[in-house]
Amino acid sequence: MGHVPRIYRPHGVRPGPLTLEGEQAKHLLTVLRLREGDEFLVFAGDGREWRATVAGSGRNALHAVVHELARQEAAHALSVEVWCGLVRATRLEWAIEKCVEAGADLVRPMVSAFASRGEGSAGKQERWERIAIEAAEQCGRLFMAVVTRSATLDELLARHHGTLIVADGSGQDWSKVASLVPPRGTVAVVVGPEGGLAPEEIARLRAAGGLLLRLGPNTLRTETAAVVATALLRGAGTQ
Question: Would residue 181 be called left, alpha or beta, if left means φ above 0 and alpha means ψ between -120 and 50 degrees?
Answer without folding.
Answer: beta
